[in-house]
Each structure stands twice: as structure tokens, then as C-alpha cells.
Amino acid sequence: MRREPYRIGVLFSTTGSYSVVSRSMLNGALLAFEESAELWDGYRIEPVVADPQGDNRLYAEYVNGFLDEGIRHVVGCYTSSSRKEVIPHFEKRDALLWYPSHYEGFESSSNVVYTGAAPNQHILPLIDYCFSRFGKRVFCVGSNYIWAWENNRIMREGALGCGGAVLAERYYPVGETDFAKVIDEILISRPDFVFNTVIGTSAYTFFREFRAACKARGIRQPAEIPVASCSLSEPELREIGEGALDGHISSSVYFSTIKTAQNAQFIARYADAFPDGPAASADAEASYVAVKLLVMALARAGSDASDAVKAALAGCGIDAPQGHVRIDPENWHAWLTPRIGLSNARGEFDVVFEATETVAPDPYLVNTAPRYASDSKPRNLRVV
Hints:
Blueprint: E1 6-11, H1 19-35, E2 45-50, H2 56-68, E3 73-76, H3 80-93, E4 96-99, E5 112-114, H4 119-133, E6 137-143, H5 146-161, E7 165-172, H6 180-189, E8 193-197, H7 200-216, H8 221-224, E9 227-229, H9 234-240, E10 249-252, H10 261-273, H11 282-301, H12 306-313, E11 317-320, E12 323-328, E13 333-335, E14 339-343, E15 349-354
Parallel strand pairs: 1-2, 1-3, 3-4, 4-5, 6-7, 6-8, 8-9, 9-10
Antiparallel strand pairs: 10-14, 11-12, 12-13, 14-15
Helix pairs in contact: 1-11, 2-3, 4-5, 6-7, 7-9, 11-12
């Protein structure tokens, strides 16, 4: 007996300033849907794809359209601003957003399942790595929205707590491509490293211009002023282009060069399904994982009702390309394996650090060891 399929919303901006990453996310989700095409006892999954074009207003419109059509689950969003835009609609109508991207944490919603890295799984390992190898004087450059604000706040607390310093924070609109002034500032201040939270086309331009400016001054940029990110991925290295794509540090839970049997299979299937790219990335893998977990929970629940799916999800885990992944029912974030990668001239990442086991998500940084706590009291109190 054939039954009506479960229709699942898929919401990624495959056009716009961060379309390269979003297209890899869509590819990861579609690959998982293809592998899950036939479920059990005649049930099927049908993805319904929409492109919000990087416009937060369109994200909300598409989500409401999905919910009006009876769709109860949506896999999607890349930026935190788009996620913030749609969460109230999921909460109001008791549906679930499956958010497959690293993010800044400090958010609590029982209507979101997070399969990307929480801050203790990407920015804290990056702070440890950079402070121990390069120094504790950091210059922060970011896109002007919550992702950069919150990550830079964590970076500042880390620096101040262990005797370091954030020399400056500079923010630019998403899509901005003029970085001449901030590059001059960086070269004058000579930080130990740059913390990059710029995204999309803005990031690709910044990497190219910064490398060129350093080269013109005889500075070996990767060695003398390295750039560290929590969002730089393989398809974006290709966008940066030859001459500037190597030597960058990225903190993530997945790189395409991971040596596991599951990843080898994932990369091969991904390449066969999407020969024109973009390359597989951490966000593509997180989208793949989100769909796999959603399908497993639907099968166990026998229903697409949010409460039933969440109850079933609490016992779900998969051997993903990155390693074993499961959702923590206390906060609906994933247990993941932190890694640090160093980009090379082939447009890939060499893994230079890997956690020995999966790490519990701590999106609010309340259970993480207070390694950056400072015993000293503020010397001055400024009242404005």
C-alpha cells in the first residue's frame, strides 16, 4: 500500500553572497534524501526545495509557505541571522527546524535540532590551538551580524582571561569587498593572528587582498600573520583562488580529507552525484547528517509530529562521515568531533589536530572547563 510521502522543506540560498557554501549544503541534503528514498512499509520522503537568495525576509516567507502546506520539518539556513528570522514561526506552529551549520551558540529553542558545531566544538579548540602556537594578540574581522559578534566576544573573553588582548574588532556588511583600510590596520598593529568571521564573497576577497598586501611588503603571511576561521571550508578555498588559498587555519568537525571508511564512501557518492560541485564541506556533511537523523526519527516515530519525532530522535545515532554523531536530548545539539585543519595549495585541509573522542555539545559554555577564567577584578569601572 502506497501512502502519502512525508514532505520535507529544504531551505538554502543557492544564489546570493554565500551561495557557494549553501549549494554544498543543498547537495549534502539531496544526497541523503536520495539514499533514503524508500523507507519502510511504503512510506516515502519528498524534499521541497526553496532558494531565499540570502534575503532574510524570503526565509520567513518560505517557512510560512511550507507550514501552510502542512510541512512539519525544514532542513535549512546557513547564517545565524536567517535562523533567528525563522525560529519564531517554528515555535508558534510547533514545527522543527533542522539547522545544519556551525554557529555561535547561546540560543535555546525546543523547535530547533542543531547538527553543526556548537562553540565549545569549534571556537574553543581554535583558541587553544592559536594561543599555544602563535600568541595571544588577535585582530578580529567579521561580517556585521550575530555570528561574528558572538564569536568575537568569546575570543575576547579567551584572550583577556589568559593575559592576551584583542587589538581591534572590525565589522563589514555581508557582501562587502573593500578591505583596504582594515588590512592597513592589521599590518600596522601586527597581531599574532587574525580571527576571521567574514563570510561569503566578502571572505574570499579579504583572503586574496590580505595575502597580496603582505606579499607586497615582504611579509610571509601564513607564517607571520596567520588567519584563523571557524567557517572556512573546501569550496570556499576554490573561490579564494590560486596564490592565496594555502596556509589558512580552520576549526571544524569535518574535513573532506578525514580518513574513515564512511567518509570515503560519502566523498565518492557526493562526487558522482554532483560532478560540477561545489566540493563537499563541513556544512554539506552537517546537512547530510540532519536528513539522515530526521529520516531515522520519522521511521521510528511513525509520524511527523514534532513531539513524536523528538522522542524518537533521543535514541538515534549514526556513523557519519566525520565519525559517530548523536543528538543530546537535553539541548538538541549534536555530539561531534572537533578538528583543526590547515589549508594547502590543492584546495584541501591537512588535519593538524583531532579530538580523541566525540565532544558533548555545550552551546551555552556552562559545562566547559573555565580555562579562560581570570582571577583578577576589573581595575576600572566606567559608567556611561
